[in-house]
Amino acid sequence: MKRIALLWNVVKGDLRVLWFALRQPGRPGWLMPATALVALYALAPFNIALPLVGVVDDGILVPLVLHLLVRCLPMDLRRAGRV
């Protein structure tokens, strides 16, 4: 249960940084399409067809990709979003 809480804290922080970066005019050009693709993947109809596989898949892959997106951001956007 502690691992799930830790994962949730990391995801919350990554989402906060990503939300901040998306609202900045100096964001990288790849950020908006990449975020849209992750959102579409998380909401894909495949999750409805196979609920257990979809939940496990979203619980592992989506947080990892979100963390990767945040790690690929320029350092100034990451630092400003963490404050």
Count the strands?
A: 0
Largest sheet report:
none
Low-confidence stretches: none
Order of helices and strands: HHHHH
Mean pLDDT metric: 85
| Cα-atom radius of gyration | 14 Å
The portion of residues forming beta strands comes to under 5%
Separate helix tally: 5
Note the overall shape. Answer: flat
Number of domains: 1
The level of helicity is over 70%
Distance between the termini: 27 Å
Sheet/helix structural class: mainly alpha
Protein name: DUF1232 domain-containing protein
Organism: Paraburkholderia silviterrae
Keywords: Membrane, Transmembrane, Transmembrane helix
Structure description:
This is DUF1232 domain-containing protein. Keywords: Membrane, Transmembrane, Transmembrane helix. The chain crosses the membrane at residues 59-77. With 83 residues, the protein is an all-alpha fold. The chain has one domain. The chain has five helices and no strands. The protein has helices spanning 2-22, 31-42, 46-49, 51-72, 75-82. Helix 1 packs across helix 4 (51-72), helix 1 crosses helix 5 and helix 2 (31-42) runs antiparallel to helix 4. The longest helix has 22 residues, at 51-72. It is flat, with a radius of gyration of 14 Å. The two termini are 27 Å apart. The model has no long low-confidence stretch (mean pLDDT 85).
Properties at a glance:
single chain, 83 residues, mainly alpha, flat
A few lines on this structure:
This is DUF1232 domain-containing protein. This protein is mostly helical and 83 residues long.
